[in-house]
Amino acid sequence: MAQQVVSFDGGFVSREDQCGFSLIELIVVVALTSLMGTWAASTWMQHAEDTATRATGVWMLSIKQALDQMLHRQSDALVGIVEPHARGPQYRDVWRPTLEELIAAGHLPPAFPLRAPLAYSVWLRIEPPQGDCLRLGCKIVGSVFAVPASNERRDAEQVTRVGLLLSTIGGHAASVTTMSGPRVKGPTIDVENPPYPDMAPLPPGSILMRSFYDSTQYAVFLRQDDQRDASLQGKLSVTKDLQVGGAIKTTGRVSAGEYLQVGASAAAGGVCESEGLIARASDLGLLVCQQGRWQRVDRGNGGGYVQMSGVPCLENDEWIVRKRNPKTGDCSCPPGYEPFLMSVWKHPVFYLYEYSAFLCI
Fold it and tell me: What's this model's pTM, rounded to 2 decimal places?
């Protein structure tokens, strides 16, 4: 017999005719819905965290690749082959480059963000190379340090975040974790913490990336702005002009197939530095440094001139007698020469004037 219950209007209805949900069923539905919402929110938050972690890993890898390019471009300056600023833009400290300087040098895009998606601070350091770098070349090592912010270190220490960062960077990095102890460990890096004696220990969650450049393969080649002694053992043939900013020294003979021109000039009788130097005289002829003074090579020929009594040494009377000394342009001797009276005579036509002939010796 079917059970009957009293309805709201006072009549009787069968229980089998009722429709709807019981209270327990509603509770179960609400609980399942809450669990699904909580799971979806947690999954979404984890997905957002993983996305930010991967983006931070790509950001760190870009900085590491930029440091690789810098080591390649600045390798000659870092090992001392060329002047420190001979290879592109200037760095305030080439051993401590900054992100702004890498952007200015073109190693990073102009719009590269200076901050990572996650709160990490980054700085770079290059080790001074060791060994005979000028002759044999050497390995240049650079480091990129990424340290989490103090308020993010609990999340940064998580193994999932560290593992995702290392996998995104591609195995070129090491990390500081509770399992690494007093070392910074990674697939290709295993160093003490701190990596350098003048550094404080890196906190857990920190990332270390290393860049390398080996200059040995190019050490034997000369290049532009090279400061090394080439020490060539054979002949050197130059088709075009050869310009040298310093002195040229040779243990053999110097010969020229054409004219030899001396550019530097000096005054006869002046002080000179080294014995045997040759200079061009400021007036005429060549000078040689002898006993600390510039001496004329052609000391036996200082020219000569003629003086006419009562008439100055003017050009308009050369039609009578040539009076000027061709080496000075007037009636005088070059510096370092003294006039010697050779003769006194009168002109056969203009006998009122007396002529005195001098030889400069």
Answer: 0.60
DSSP per-residue string spanning 131-171: S-HHHH--EEEEEEEEEE-GGGHHHHT-HHHHHHHHHHHTS
Name the stretches of the chain with pLDDT < 70.
Answer: 1-23, 25-26, 29, 34-35, 37-47, 86-89, 298-301, 314-321, 350
Q: What is the DSSP track for 78-147?
A: HTTSS-TTSSSS--S-TTS--HHHHHHTTSS-TT--SS-SSSEEEEEEEPPP-S-HHHH--EEEEEEEEE
Residue 273 is part of which domain span?
265-296
Question: What token pair was written down for 72?
Answer: 């390649």
Do residues 148 and 206 both lie within one domain?
A: yes
- Tell me the per-residue pLDDT of 22-44, one tens digit each, with 9 for 90 and over: 667 667 767 777 667 666 556 55
Is 147 in the same domain as 39?
A: yes
